[in-house]
TrEMBL record, chain B:
This is ER lumen protein-retaining receptor A-like. The keyword Transferase does not apply. It comes from Durio zibethinus. One of its GO terms (cellular component) is endoplasmic reticulum membrane. One of its GO terms (molecular function) is ER retention sequence binding. Pfam families: ER_lumen_recept. Signal peptide: none annotated. Keywords: Endoplasmic reticulum, ER-Golgi transport, Membrane, Protein transport, Receptor, Transmembrane, Transmembrane helix, Transport.
Length: 10, 215
């Protein structure tokens, strides 16, 4: 979902 | 992806490669804290729960697999390998790291981005990573002299999170909805914990001498 920014960092 | 984060990931990868080199080349894990390795394995296992559910990129998936596999391999090697395990400084590596796990979990229950299973474990892994180096730093303090590969391992491990702090500053100014304050505050604490190690590492590098930590 948009509000839960995907964890794109390691 | 920005240059700071890529530099951070590469520095982190280098630290892991130096650790593997040290253990496999010298067939010894003296100076390495098994407790810190166990904490890091836990950090990666709890942080990458979304490994099979959220696909970010090939790079992201491969790096997660490398971090999980390497941390588990080091723990298994230090526990099982009949030659390596003999060189483990069991009587120096006595930090009560279960307290670090408990403190991180309690904090994750209190402070998280969303009270869901995945978010709580993500926050737990972030807090635990900030503290995971403590058993290793205590072990180095107690053993006094630091061999080159171990020193380089800890140096790169500390440096990678410093690059991430630059990454968070960069993303804060370039992306509207970017707020990664849990990781940022925790990353700052993590980097500060290395401060005295970095100081003695720099001194030994400047004097071209063997690294000595004050007893």
């Amino acid at each position: 979902s948009k509000d839960q920014v995907a964890k794109d960092e390691l | 992806m920005n240059i700071f984060r890529f530099a951070g990931d590469m520095t982190h990868l280098i630290s892991i490669l130096v650790l593997l080199l040290k253990i496999y080349a010298t067939k010894s894990c003296s100076g390495i804290s098994l407790k810190t390795q166990e904490l890091y394995a836990l950090v990666f296992l709890t942080r990458y729960l979304d490994l099979f559910t959220d696909f970010i990129s090939v790079y992201n998936t491969i790096m997660k697999l490398v971090f999980i596999a390497s941390s588990l391999a080091v723990v298994c090697c230090m526990r099982m390998h009949r030659v390596v395990r003999r060189s483990y400084d069991k009587d120096l590596d006595t930090f009560r790291h279960y307290f670090l796990i408990l403190a991180s979990f309690v904090l994750a229950l209190l402070v998280n981005e969303k009270f869901t299973f995945q978010e709580i474990f993500w926050a737990f892994s972030i807090y635990l990573e900030a503290l995971a180096i403590l058993p290793q730093l205590v072990l180095l303090q107690r053993s006094g002299n630091v061999d080159n590969l171990t020193g380089q391992y800890v140096f790169f491990l500390g440096a990678y999170r410093a690059f991430y702090i630059l990454n968070w500053i960069y993303r804060y100014f370039t992306e509207q909805h970017f707020s990664r304050w849990i990781a940022c505050v925790s990353g700052l604490v993590q980097t500060v914990l290395y401060a005295d190690f970095f100081y003695y590492y720099f001194i030994s590098w400047k004097n071209n001498a063997k690294m000595q930590l004050p007893a």
